[in-house]
Amino acid sequence: MVCDCAPMLRLVTTLLCRHCQRIRRLPPLRAFSNPGGTAENQVTVEALYDLSVDIQKIRQLKGWVLHQSPAYVSETASLLRDMGAEGPMIARVLELYPEAVLCSPEQQQAQRELWRSICPRERDLVGIIEKFPASFFTSSHHANQRANIDFFQSLHLNKRIVTKLMASAPQSFSCPVGQNKEMVCTLQQAYLELGGDAANMKIWLQKLLSQNPFVLLKPPEVLRDNLLFLRDRGFTTSELLRLLSKLRGFVVELNPDNMRHTLAYSQETLCCSEAELRDMVLNCPALLYYPEVILAERFEGLLRAGVTMAQITQTPTVLELTTQIVSYRIQRLRSYGYDVRTGSLQVLNGTKKDFEMSSGKLQLRRERPLFNPVAPLKGDD
User: Fold this and answer.
1) Which of 231, 243, 261, 267 is the most buried if burial means most Cβ atoms within 10 Å?
2) What is the DSSP-derived secondary structure letter of residue 264?
């Protein structure tokens, strides 16, 4: 009698496939060790594997986390899941910031309540955690965070602005509240002394902090020194207020020595007077903070394209664009029949969206046939 072995073969094959899949998803059997000789916490590794986290990525970038005990992988995942996060997002967060699993459930819950005081919608909070996980899971400065939140709320700033500050510049919320109070007070004082309207100060401060939240991390003396230097260069109080607003808080990133060298180089290259240079700086603050080497490269790129110094003087904001962007835009405009050597450089300026709109109009103008009102009309023969 002949035995039909096909069903038996199918059963064996199925069992072997399941066994192979199990082997593939399990971590390597050998124990990884750090330089100190401590083996990885296999409970942590197994839990991360179960969440589909890329363990190799963690080993390469932050392998020390895998050696810590205790770790709260399942508790962290449960917290994120309870807030509305899905599996792939949880895995991304833990790959980006594996230190999150070292926060105890009590610390995580305290952070959740703290953040909800400025971001009540947990759906929005999950989005913040996905982009800035380190900001959410930093729990060692909880008291400072609470005090700084209270301070910024006392300024009647928009909750969205406070949330953005805490997410993108968490260091400013981890420091003692007195440090932020001093810098904010200095900014407000400078605004008023330069002729700013007290009624608009809150809006001005909100805009400045949202555009450059790292302004809070600088000592107030830097702001005062830079404003005094610019005043000595001939800028009026109204011009300084305008410049302070246009720099978006970047004025604290500058220093008098660097500004002196950059301004001297720009004036020599452009062959302009002090008054002309100030006008260009007001339109293009980049002339204050770009190093000479960057400005030299951009001047050279524009001149190589046939642009004159007179054109650059009229539209200095073109210096805010990289040489690669300028070259691409000039070629694009040339394909539409526009020659920057004889036209305005203003069409080069703006964001990518701005340029697409302006160049699109040039393209339509070229493609649209001109209507001649005196041309004879074609009729039927």
Assistant:
1) 243
2) H
- Taking the C-alpha atoms of residue 147 and residue 174, their distance in angstroms, rounded to an integer, is 9
Helix/strand/coil for 287: helix
- Positions of E strands within the chain: none
* Distance, CA of 344 to CA of 316 (rounded, Å): 12
Question: Could you give the 3-state DSSP secondary structure of residue 33?
Answer: strand
What secondary structure does DSSP assign to 137-170, as a single string? Answer: S--TTHHHHHHHHHHHHHTT--HHHHHHHHHH-T
d(CA 268, CA 57): 51
Rounded Cα gap, residues 273 and 69, in angstroms: 66
Are the C-beta atoms of 145 and 184 separated by less than 8 Å?
no
**Coil/strand/helix, residue 370:** coil
Residue type, 201: M
CB 362 within 8 A of CB 355: no
- Give the model confidence (pLDDT) of 197-234 as tens digits: 999 999 999 988 888 888 998 999 999 999 999 999 99
pLDDT in tens, 48-72: 999 999 999 999 999 999 999 999 9
Q: Which residues have C-beta within 8 Å of that of residue 220, sequence separation ≥ 6?
A: 182, 183, 185, 186
Per-residue tokens: 61: 């970038």
Closest by alpha carbon to 138, among 164, 190, 175, 178?
175
CB atoms within 10 A of CB 213: 21
Q: Phi/psi of residue 137, each to 5°?
A: -90, 10
Predicted structure pTM score: 0.75
The residue type found at 204 is W
3-state helix, strand, coil in the chain (%, to 5): 70, 0, 30
Summary count for the chain: helices (H), strands (E): 22, 0
